[in-house]
Design goal:
The protein has 5 helices and 8 strands. The chain is α+β, with helices and mostly antiparallel strands.
């Protein structure tokens, strides 16, 4: 009787260990794929798509997508104006102001910071960019770039979602896109310049 219980316990323990190993491999596989090196695309192509979010106090913005064939991984950029919401004296001068302006609510809450933000320039406007990790249950890991820049008291906020856990390689392409003629023209019209 005792050896039978030991055999049953051994078999059940082995099955549990095998199930645990299988589940670990199943859920870790997307993370392993996402962690591979990512290089900046030579010619990213962003195409305008429909704004996917419900209307809130800031209204709809513009949405753009760069397919994985053009950017190495899928990148979505969402931009919109926040008129009169920027610090008129200092602009987007620090990470606290960037966090305050960012559209984290569109992504379901504030993601985890990957590092300190840094200054950026879009056309004549100065601002900041900062990378964040996004981890949601049942989704492969990804990241978000929060970018905000201002003209006096008015801010333009851009959120770039990246289907990769390290967005640094794609940030220059996103900044270049935000400096493109169609986006700068949209900013001028939206800000009433």
């Amino acid at each position: 009787m005792r050896s039978r219980n030991a055999i049953v316990a051994g078999v059940l323990g082995g099955l549990a260990l095998g199930a645990l190993a299988g589940l670990s491999a199943f859920f870790a596989w997307p993370m392993l794929l996402q962690s591979k090196a990512l290089t900046a695309p030579s010619h990213p192509k962003f195409a305008e798509v429909r704004w996917p979010f419900p209307t809130d106090e800031w209204g709809e913005g513009k949405a753009f997508r760069c397919a994985s064939a053009d950017c190495g991984v899928e990148v979505n950029v969402y931009i919109r104006a926040k008129i009169g919401f920027c610090n008129c004296l200092t602009g987007v001068s620090d990470d606290n102001e960037l966090d305050r302006l960012s559209d984290f609510n569109l992504m379901g809450g504030k993601p985890a910071v990957l590092g300190a933000g840094h200054e950026i320039k879009i056309a004549w406007m100065k601002g900041r960019s900062r990378a964040y990790a996004v981890s949601e249950p049942y989704r492969a890991p990804g990241s978000t770039l929060a970018i905000a820049f201002n003209d006096r008291c008015d801010a333009i906020v851009a959120t770039a979602t990246v289907a990769h856990d390290r967005p640094a390689a794609l940030e220059p392409s996103v900044i270049e896109f935000l400096n493109s003629e169609p986006v700068v023209h949209w900013a001028e019209v939206t800000l009433g310049l």
